[in-house]
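Summary: Need help interpreting a holo structure output

Steps to reproduce:
1. Submit the protein chain below together with the SMILES for S-adenosylmethionine.
2. Request a joint structure prediction with the ligand placed.
3. Inspect the structure token block that comes back.

Expected: a single structure record containing both the chain and the bound molecule.
Actual: see attached output.

Input attached:
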Amino acid sequence: MGNNIWSKNVQGILMLDLSREIRFRDDRKDLFLNILGLKEGMTVVDVGCGPGAITRKLSNWLGDKTKIIGIDRDTTFINYAKEKAKEQNMYNISYLEGDALKLPLEDNSVDACMSHTVIEHVPNKEFLLEQKRVCKPNGRVSVMCARPNKYIKTEPKLLPKQSEREKKLLDKLFKGTDEIFKKYNVGKYSVDPVELPTLFDELGFKDIQVDGIAIPVAIDDARNSYKEKVIIVETQKEQLLEVVSMGLYQNKSGLSDKEEKELKQLIEERFHKRLELIKDRKYIWDYTIFLLQVVSGMVD
Ligand SMILES: C[S@@+](CC[C@H](N)C(=O)[O-])C[C@H]1O[C@@H](n2cnc3c(N)ncnc32)[C@H](O)[C@@H]1O
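--- attached output ---
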């Protein structure tokens, strides 16, 4: 049953965990819980939970009386998520290895299903019908998907730029990645903003709702402490270094040892310069705001 397709070829633990930690910040707790219709005491499934950052957020936000079930087919993610929950004494979460299209759950057994950036990689209709099957009457199925073309991304003059050499080495390493993504259906089932609620309707969901959440990641925002600013930059660096490691795993001869060392050095230097700006209390306003669409429907 298990596999490591996603964690080995598409996105690693750090990339998913750290970006979700920022995306699902605690100060957005009420916003997320309201939109997803989640309340204390429910049984909630996170379908395609990855390494589990969102399940851990829900565990904290919804408390001990709530039961969170994380399901993913990637064994590495599930093992990591289990370990992390144990470390943090989160006894209201359980993790199951399983296919989103054949959930290892009884009919009418849970109060809500949610997923974050999963529907675009699986056949949409089967994905929603399976969650409809496991939800009790009046249970809610919510789908969150990123809208990658709705983006604000600033590149201020003072931002330490990627050198031509760094770009060249990254391009060399990732030649052929498109083929790997195609092989594993990454983004194959991306769903149009109109088609998604239409599909909920066609599949017999009621009380269909459409929401959007703007997600800002702004290092210099005054609500970030000095330590948080440093963590955001360190996180961005670690994510990129993880991407490089995954590239080397897929394409072992993609870079020579010398080139690999040079690329890592260039990345370290670029992010070091960004950290220096924080240390000097210099605000440069490099930030992104992206749009997360949320569509949900209630089971009859
Ligand atoms: C973009 S990641 C999102 C992970 C997590 N929801 C998050 O936002 O951190 C997509 C996830 O879907 C999982 N996935 C893809 N197809 C699946 C399937 N058919 N059944 C179960 N999980 C699947 C992958 O293993 C991966 O963890």
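--- end attachment ---

Reviewer comment: Residues 5-295 form a domain with the Rossmann fold fold (CATH 3.40.50.150). The first strand starts at residue 43 and ends at 47.
Status: needs-info
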